[in-house]
Amino acid sequence: MKISDIQKLVASYPRVPLTVDCVVFGFDENALKVLLIESDISVFEGKWTLLGDFVQDNETLDAAAHRIFRERTGMSDIYLEQVRAFSDPVRHPGGRVITMAYCSLVNIRHHTLRKLDNSLHWHTVHEVTDMAFDHQEIVQVCYTWLQRRIQEHPLGINLLPDKFSLRELQNLYEAILDVRLDRRNFRKKFFSMDFLIDTGEYEDDVPHRPGRLYKFDFDKFEKKKRKWIGIDFA
Amino acid sequence: MKISDIQKLVASYPRVPLTVDCVVFGFDENALKVLLIESDISVFEGKWTLLGDFVQDNETLDAAAHRIFRERTGMSDIYLEQVRAFSDPVRHPGGRVITMAYCSLVNIRHHTLRKLDNSLHWHTVHEVTDMAFDHQEIVQVCYTWLQRRIQEHPLGINLLPDKFSLRELQNLYEAILDVRLDRRNFRKKFFSMDFLIDTGEYEDDVPHRPGRLYKFDFDKFEKKKRKWIGIDFA
DNA sequence: ACAAAAGTGTTAGATCTACACCCATGT
DNA sequence: ACATGGGTGTAGATCTAACACTTTTGT
To answer: What range(s) does the Nudix hydrolase domain occupy (chains A, B) (predicted)?
Structure first.
């Protein structure tokens, strides 16, 4: 028996409240930060939450994530990527709410130029605690996701200014991966990938020899279709 | 102003119909297959769809995926992983429906031992066409996801019998990645990772010298916490 | 005996790692 | 002049890629 009134079928099924939560990472003073807002819910008084909101009827999840980010921070044109859904039936005290976590990376300097809701604050990722809902877990999952992701994709560059020195880039990787890397090997690695564009400019206002400033050639990166055959489970 | 009646707040927000679709991969005759069912919806007469269903009120998405898989195939205890959500507001002719895609890997031989709904069929991934909804895109995204994932995680082993020869394993990788690999190097690679357990048994019913059969040591794999520092964008 | 795939080592090239000194700038 | 980080090269170890022959089984 075929189903002909599909509208009716869809209408008959359970619907769930669906939210998007943005885990917004920034990089400042050589530490990875996450942007949080004070909870406006009584039961979570004094706790911090991610930037989130319910999904509207006529928008994609990506669009919802961009909208939420824009509404809360005034910024647009930022890097956002879906990470995963959190769907424990009792994760939200108001009842069943499923949320899709998005990871976002912004340059913290651009960000602070904007007028912001003053309940927004940057928190060092390693020191975040006292979060509402399951947001602690969401931050942790996104952080782990980011650690993997920056090793195979240059998304981390979004945390830096347009023009950046190799020192800044290395500090970024060291902070996120929580390792110490050899400076010469790090440079060789990035130069050999051949995605850095030398701007010819130099750092300014540094109390030592200024470093060269580079941009990242995202177009070139996108064009190089990567076959990447290299099985390795370790 | 704090929000105190959080139940009421949640109740006031839009709800969306949410489904889970399982992309079930199998491996047979050296080709990657995907398990599809004939659509029971009039507008998609003659088209194929993934195994999907609406999410119930009190289950996680993972639980929904397992339930759907069990209901349709009779199997449990299978490998399932969340891939990503598809949320185009017009992806479903019955109205706004968001779906979460899950990738599942099963051994096609175990599978066919069960009595199955006879509208279920295995299709060669490269030849799938004429699918309902956006399921073609979902299959494509999951296939691409799988190609990456099997290079860093041994989930592909779930497509093989418990005991398998290295030839079978190599055929699997060659089929999924669509490349040709050197046999000796492939063996060296897997032996050096040291996750294969030699069962001491051999293939049977092959018209040539039988190969040794191995099991994969998933416990050992899980224990080896992988640091995996190796930046590489290419 | 033949067909078919199993099993096995070596070498050259590429990549990775570890490591130390001089240079340019601000104070 | 000195303190600070910028910039550079090399050698040894490791990993990767390319390559051919003998062995075992079924027919």
So the answer is: 18-140
Put simply, the chain B residues between 85 and 104 with a CB less than 8 A from any chain A CB are 85, 87-89, 92-98, 100
Is the domain of A135 the same as that of A167? no
Whole domain around residue B87: which residue ranges? 10-149
CA distance B123 to chain A (A): 22
Residue nearest to nucleotide C23 (CA to C1'): A209
Q: How confident is the model at residue A39 (pLDDT cuts 50, 70, 90)?
A: very high
Residues A111 and A180 in one domain: no
Residue with tokens 């942007």: A35
Of the pLDDT bands very low, low, confident and very high (cuts 50, 70, 90), residue A2 is confident
pLDDT at B68 over 60: yes
- In angstroms, the Cα distances linking B200 to A18, B187, B207, B212, B215 are 52, 17, 20, 7, 10
The pLDDT score that the predictor gives to residue A1 is 65
The type of residue at A45 is: E
Question: Judged by CB atoms within 8 Å, which residues 157-176 of B form the interface with A?
Answer: 173
Q: Which one of B4, B5, B8, B15 would you mutate to disrupt binding with A, by most A Cβ within 10 Å of its Cβ?
A: B15
Same-domain status, A35 and A61: yes
Sign of CA dihedral A10, A12, A13, A14: positive
